[in-house]
Write a structure and sequence with these properties.
The chain is α+β, with helices and mostly antiparallel strands and 238 residues long. It has helices at 4-23, 81-90, 106-110, 136-139, 150-160, 180-203, 211-222, 225-236; strands at residues 32-36, 43-47, 60-64, 69-70, 96-100, 132-133, 165-168, 172-177. It has a single domain (4-232), classed as L-fuculose-1-phosphate Aldolase. The protein is 41% helix and 14% strand. The longest helix has 24 residues, at 180-203.
């Protein structure tokens, strides 16, 4: 039997996530966030095609892992829902996905000598090599840079591998988490880390976190996600 209460809570959380990401300047009129269906791991929840700041629980739809809308209806859906479908199919550990065009992050997708790396403890999840998806390798030289089908979604998921973040050249990034709240947390601090890193690089030589520091910081921060979520949620009510 479907757990209606759980699904209702999930829809509310997803609506809140959209508004948090807008309030934190991660998304604007574009970008989207999803979560794995808590009642069926082979499905995910994603809003219909709307600006994130306007999403309500009633806008949340259900999709399968091929990006097909379930439940009927003539809803307009996000073109790039295949990002979410392919990542959930490839990563059983992932329960939240954020795709954005965050302004501070995009430069790191296009400057070949600038690699996004953790520079502060809140960006510990950025350890290792953050992959950068070059769509020209998969869609040729004349694409619109969008993930328009499941094949491109699978290519993106493969490039992401086990990373928390995949950059998308000239486009933005996709961030994942083991929960919706962790995905939102990481999306916010991917943006913040990018801002701090760019400012530091303009000043001179940068001291980055070691892999060990990044791992320890990420573990510590994981226990504080609810604190951030509750605060950000309260700001969306203002």
């Amino acid at each position: 039997m479907t757990d209606i209460t759980t699904l209702n809570d999930a829809r509310q959380d997803l609506a809140d996530a959209n508004r948090i990401l807008f309030k934190q300047d991660v998304v604007d009129a574009f970008g989207h966030v999803s979560m794995r269906d808590p009642t069926n791991p082979n499905q995910f929840l994603l809003s219909r095609n709307k600006a994130p700041a306007t999403v309500t629980p009633a806008d949340v739809l259900t999709f399968d892992l091929q990006g097909n809308l379930l439940g009927g209806g003539a809803h307009k859906v996000y073109l790039e829902r295949f990002i979410h479908a392919a990542i959930y199919a490839a990563r059983p550990d992932v329960h939240g996905v954020v795709h954005s065009h965050a302004k501070a992050v995009v430069p790191f997708t296009i400057v070949k000598t600038a690699r996004l790396r953790p520079v502060c403890h809140m960006g510990g999840f950025l350890s290792g090599i953050i992959p950068n998806f070059e769509i020209r390798d998969h869609a040729g030289m004349g694409s619109d840079l969008l993930i328009r089908d499941l094949r491109l979604g699978r290519d993106l998921a493969q490039k992401m591998g086990s990373s928390a973040v995949v950059l998308m050249r000239g486009h933005g990034s996709t961030v994942v988490g083991m929960s919706l709240k962790q995905a939102v947390f990481r999306a916010v601090y991917t943006q913040n880390n990018a801002q701090i890193q760019a400012a530091a690089m303009a000043l001179g030589e940068v001291t980055y976190l070691t892999d060990e520091e990044a791992l320890a910081a990420d573990e510590a921060n994981t226990g504080q996600i609810s604190r951030a979520w509750d605060f950000w949620s309260s700001q969306t009510q203002e």
